[in-house]
Amino acid sequence: VQRDPRLNEILYPYANRQTIRYIQEAYEPQEKSASQGKLTDKAAIYPYGLTLECFYRYLMSDDNAPVFLDRLDIYQDMDQPLCHYYINSSHNTYLIGRQFGGKSSVEIYRQVLLAGCRDDCVNCWMAGMRVVIRENFILRVRGWRDCCSAIWLTGIGVEK
Fold first, then answer.
1. Residue 143: how many CB atoms within 10 A of its CB?
2. Per residue in 52-93, pLDDT tens?
3. Smallest Cα–Cα separation from 154: which of 108, 105, 94?
4. pLDDT tens figures, 109-153
């Protein structure tokens, strides 16, 4: 999941006339002219746009798939233990900014879980009241209940 929306313009550039022409050539239905018996190109009628039928065909095509089609094929041996595979995980999740001296927030837990993280280490330390803390570093971190609630509502609760 991309955090910087500016990358979308690089990875998925906006359509231009060349892109529209490609879509027209690939998905515009060709009909025979009743008078001449020749194929007519509807794209010539709509030089700067798509007909509704062409647009529909493009939307339903592999060119407009919501995922990369080459990544749907299983190309690895998937019979290994889970620990042999890459797991999307997070470290120092609660930190906003620098590792030392940075602020912390429970909201970051929600964001990484919504972004796809499914493995997170939450360290806690008992000092009268449970707080989330990273080993010996003193950070002002939200309470244990707030952290567990965020994880439950965003991660575990969503998957059910």
1. 14
2. 888 899 999 988 887 777 777 777 777 877 777 666 556 666
3. 108
4. 777 777 777 666 666 655 555 555 554 444 445 566 777 787 777
Classify the C-alpha dihedral 24-26-29-33 as positive or negative.
Answer: positive
CA distance 17 to 23: 10
Say how many C-beta atoms besides its own lie within 10 A of residue 134's C-beta: 19
d(CA 53, CA 51) in angstroms, rounded, equals 5
pTM beyond 0.70: no
Cβ(92)–Cβ(99) under 8 Å? yes
Reduced to 3 states, what is the DSSP secondary structure of residue 79? Answer: coil
R_g (Cα) of the chain, nearest Å:
26
The span from the CA of 61 to the CA of 69, in Å, is: 11
* Cβ-based neighbours of 118, under 8 Å, separated by 6 or more: 87, 88, 89, 155
Residue 31 host element (H or E) = strand 30-32
Dist CA 77 CA 103 (whole Å): 42
pLDDT in tens, 117-129: 766 666 665 555 5
Whole-number Å distance between alpha carbons of 160 and 156: 7
